[in-house]
Structure formats: C-alpha cells, structure tokens
Write a structure and sequence with these properties.
Number of domains: 2
Radius of gyration: 35 Å
Number of strands: 11
Shape: elongated
Structural class: mainly beta
Helix content: under 10%
Distance between the termini: 27 Å
Order of helices and strands: EEEHEEEEEEEE
Number of helices: 1
Strand order of the largest sheet: 1-11-2
C-alpha cells in the first residue's frame, strides 16, 4: 500500500500493512528510520540524537493545529501536543447558578410528622390534678387537600450541593469506534510545498 512517508491513515483491517506502523507512541532508532525522522523529528517524543517516537493515537482523536476560541478562553493547539481527559470532576466553582421562579398554579407538599412524645402537664396547668390526658393519642389519618392562599413571587436561587462533600468523577468521553491509526514509514518522500 503506497503512501507518503509520515502520512497517517485509519485502517479497518486487523493487521498493519507492509511499510506502515501503528501510531502507538513507539520509540524508534533514528538511524533505522532516517526519512521518517527527517519529516516528524522529535515532535512526538525522543531524545534528538538516537531515538524518536511515533505519534500516539491510543485512546485519542486527531485535533487540527491552530488557535481556537471558546467562551471565556482562547486555546492554542500545537503540533504533537496531547490534551483532553476522559473524565472531569464537577466542583462548586464550575457549576452555574440555577435560577427559576414560581408559576401560578404550582403545587407542592409540606410533609408533617406527629411527634409521638408523651404529654406531661403536671405542674404546668391551673386547676385539676394533671392526671388526665387532654389528647386522645397520636393523630391518625390524613388531612384533606386545601388551598394555601399565600402569594409567592420573585427570583429564588436553587443551590445544588453534594452534602457529603464527595466529588465524584463524571465521564466526558465522546462515543467512538476503535480502529487502527497507521503511519507510513516506507513509501514516497513528500515534496515540500511553497
């Protein structure tokens, strides 16, 4: 399979064609791959005198060289630079505020539980000996729904917080398809453009 030395392709086979190598970051001797070294040099690693590395596409995707502007930041992608992560941790500092208002007709419930504690009025009431209970016991049953005639308006801040203090990793890995990235190590030497 002919190609230009230093050319990188995706290959769907389960083998690496003759004259090509996997883009797996492998360290190579400069003396054995002089034409390839003259094209990629130490951009992907090496010591500059005896060895250099192939690009490493294991678990990575290609990103174009250049400057990219994203909201709040300007990033520069340099040749051979590795970047990105498979996961991140959401911190309170990078979670935006969530604001919302109540809408007419909003329904909500307020849970109420019976205390169930003993009532002891001895010495705390006027008249009588305090032996009789004025309650018949713990309430049973439920209240019928009723309207609460209270207007609620304005902005209300909703705070999202992990009360346990644990910050769990969140996967941000994009969907992908595993395939060979291969580089031509024995082929046509590319002419430099003007």
């Amino acid at each position: 399979m002919d190609g230009y030395i230093g050319e990188i392709k995706m290959f769907s086979g389960d083998f690496v064609p003759k004259g090509w190598m996997l883009c797996n970051g492998e360290e190579l001797a400069i003396t054995k791959y002089v034409p390839l070294y003259s094209i990629i040099g130490n951009v992907y690693g090496g010591n500059g005198s005896t060895v250099f590395n192939l690009p490493d596409f294991c678990g990575r995707v290609a990103v174009g060289l250049g400057i990219i502007s994203v909201p709040g930041d300007i990033g520069k992608y340099n040749l051979g630079e590795k970047n990105g992560n498979n996961e991140t941790r959401l911190m309170p500092s990078n979670i935006p505020e969530l604001r919302g208002g109540f809408v007419d007709g909003t329904k909500f419930s307020i849970p109420c539980a019976a205390d169930g504690g003993a009532f002891n009025p001895i010495g705390k009431v006027i008249g009588g000996n305090g032996d009789a209970s004025i309650f018949s016991g713990i309430p049973t049953g439920t209240l019928e729904p009723f309207d609460l005639n209270k207007a609620i308006s304005g902005d209300h801040l909703v705070v999202v917080n992990n009360r346990n203090g644990h910050i769990e990793p969140l996967s941000i890995m994009q969907p992908g398809l595993v395939i060979f990235y291969i580089i031509c190590v024995n082929g046509l030497y590319p002419d430099r453009g003007e």
